[in-house]
Amino acid sequence: MRHYTKLDKIYNHESNVDIKERIQLVRRITLDKQHIEDVAKELHRCIAWAYKWYKRYNENGLEGLQDQQRTGRPPDVPKDVMVKIRQELAESDTGWDFRQVMDLIYKKTGVRYHEVHI
């Protein structure tokens, strides 16, 4: 019979499936004494994924298994300006196509977006 641990309790109360999978990884390595490569294979994950999450657990404990905020590239147009443009588009009774929206953004900001991003 398997001994009930703190990891089991946290796993049972966790709703995020990604975090549950990471807890399962850690549990199998630390408590079941399985090799990290074997656990990665059983979870249908690459070995790099397993090492990444196991390292984060060792460095930060259970907090390390949480997703970190991603920053990304800052927008070219300030948010308040884009909000005003959206309001103008929403308040207009005319139908807008992507070319007109691209032109409006360019006229108001000097930033030219590709049609895919409109």
Write up this protein.
The chain is elongated and about 65 Å long. It has six helices and no strands. By secondary structure, the protein is mainly α. The N and C termini lie far apart (57 Å). The longest helix is centred in the N-terminal third of the chain and has 14 residues, at 17-30. α5 crosses α6. The mean pLDDT is 91. It has helices at 6-13, 17-30, 36-42, 47-60, 79-91, 98-109. The chain folds into two domains: 6-65; 79-117, no CATH class.
Parts with pLDDT < 50 across at least 5 consecutive residues: none
For the CA atoms, what is the radius of gyration?
24 Å
Please, what is the average pLDDT?
91
Roughly what percent helix?
55-70%
What is the count of distinct domains?
2
Shape descriptor: elongated
- Proportion of residues in extended strands: under 5%
**How far do the termini sit from each other?**
57 Å
What is the helix/strand order? HHHHHH
Number of helices: 6
Biggest β-sheet strands, sense, barrel: none
Structural class label: mainly alpha
Q: What's the total number of strands?
A: 0
Q: How do the strands and helices of this protein lay out in sequence?
A:
Layout: H1 6-13, H2 17-30, H3 36-42, H4 47-60, H5 79-91, H6 98-109
Helix pairs in contact: 1-2, 3-4, 5-6
Main features:
6 helices, 0% strand, 2 domains, mainly alpha, 118 residues, elongated
Structure at a glance:
The protein is an all-alpha fold and 118 residues long. The chain has helices spanning 6-13, 17-30, 36-42, 47-60, 79-91, 98-109.
